[in-house]
Amino acid sequence: MDVTGLRIDNIGSSDKSQPGERIKLKSKIIDWRTAPPDLASLQEIKDIFRSGGNIVFPTETVFGLGANALSDNACSKVFLTKKRPGDNPLIVHVSSFEMVERIAELDQELKEKLTMVWPGPLTVILKNIGVSKIATSGLDTVGIRMPLHRQARKMIEFAGIPIAAPSANMASRPSITRNSDALREFNGKVDAIILGDEPEFGLESTVIDPYSSPAKILRSGSYTAQELEPVFGKLELYSGNQEHPTTPGMKYRHYSPVKPLYLVENILEFKKVVSRSEDNVVPICSEEVGESLDRYFISLGSQYDLRSVARNLFAAFNAFDQSNYDSAFIHGFQEEGLGITIMNRIRKASSEL
Ligand code: TXA
Ligand code: MG
Q1: Residue 16 confidence (pLDDT) above 50
Q2: pLDDT of 280
Q3: Angle of helix 108-117 relative to helix 225-232, nearest 10 degrees?
Q4: What are the CB-based long-range contacts (under 8 Å, 24+) for 339-344?
Q5: What is the side-by-side strand order in the sheet with 261-264?
Q6: Ligand 1, from 75, 149, 167, 186: best to mutate by most atoms within 8 Å of Cβ?
């Protein structure tokens, strides 16, 4: 075992594939956890992307499941691997403005605004002029973002092509924010997995429509409205509904652990419910609340540091799924700033009590 608890020398295949599914015995593991990206692995990644392969890689938000955004075939494989509905478009990742201009319409005014928030966890919806129609699910728009994560940007820059990547998780399941979860979930299902710097934000990018008036937040994310408003003006948080989803993806179930997770918003109520619960139930809570419980809990970090809660949230859901516990309770967080995104993800992940 190395310091991160991952063994990468002998990763066997976990072949649970159904007839007709693509069977891969092993994914190529590229390890950038302790050394910067080297030329040989960058070249290997470029070759995989350019020949239509899929690669799981870390970003500053969550891990992505990447493919050449210009190739219908490469993008189709992403939908198949994730079991993602075909009408939910992929986000396209770029490493430069020059790359944006090759695939989408971008005017000077918006470009200047984007230089203030990119690279970073923001996706903007633009008119598509160059990306595969499979990636955009046939829409004439494309969601684009320039990641802050250095290794991700280096990978895209070296490959020289825009990379379409949804979050690397099976459709409806929690996103992945740890190398160990990426490896367990995707080894054998994709051509390569890059292990690297784990996401510092832990929640997906904020998706905005910059051309509506006022500009709209279609999906809350790691950039808060307060951080974006100095650049884009007043933003409307468009909540949508099942018939009129804000983004195509919003009509689907999301972020849920396989086992039931129940939200008890009020902390006092949460403590009561936990104290009455059986041993097969695990609390998922802030460090402060956990310390008052007198039983094992999965920690989300300090309640007073919402960035740490964001960074730990999906890892906690995945740890719960891997544990022997049958169900879990989670408490609420104040819905302000990053708390809005945290509560959005918790609500979507949890079952009715
Ligand atoms: O942080 C992130 O955004 C991560 C990392 C990997 O970059 N990616 C991610 O992708 O969260 P995904 O596929 O899980 O979510 C993409 C969201 C979906 O809600 C989708 O409907 C929306 O973006 N979206 C993509 N293209 C769109 C478009 N042209 N118009 C409206 N919504 C779009
Ligand atoms: Mg997702």
Answers
A1: no
A2: 98
A3: 150
A4: 339/306, 340/220, 340/224, 340/225, 340/237, 341/203, 341/206, 341/220, 341/221, 341/222, 341/224, 341/310, 342/203, 342/306, 342/309, 342/310, 342/313, 344/220
A5: 261-264, 327-331, 281-285, 298-299
A6: 167
Query: Does one domain contain both 273 and 321?
Result: yes
Task: Tell me, yes or no, whether 112 and 190 share the same domain.
Answer: yes
pTM summary value: 0.93
Averaged pLDDT for residues 51-67: 98
How many Å apart are CA 173 and CA 343, to the nearest integer? 16
Question: Is 248 contained in some domain?
Answer: no
Judge if 202 and 331 occupy the same domain. Answer: no
Query: Is 207 close to ligand 1, i.e. is its CB under 6 Å away?
Result: yes
Task: Indicate whether 134 and 167 sit together in one domain.
Answer: yes
Supply the residue whose CA is at minimum distance from atom 32 of ligand 1. Answer: 247
Ligand 1 contact, 174 CB (< 6 A): no
> The domain that contains 46 carries what CATH number?
3.90.870.10
**pLDDT for the residue numbered 25:** 67
Supply 321's token pair.
């799924």
**What's the gap in Å between 13 CA and the centre of ligand 2?**
25
- 146: Cβ below 6 Å to ligand 1? no
* Domain membership flag for residue 166: yes
Q: Please enumerate in sequence order all residues whose Cβ is within 8 A of that of 267, keeping only pairs 6 or more positions apart, or say none.
A: 289, 331, 332
Answer yes or no: is pLDDT of 214 > 60.
yes
**Same domain membership, residue 288 and residue 221:** no
Domain count within the chain: 2
228 & 272 share domain: no
Cα 98 to Cα 50: distance, rounded to the nearest angstrom: 19
Averaged pLDDT for residues 40-55: 98
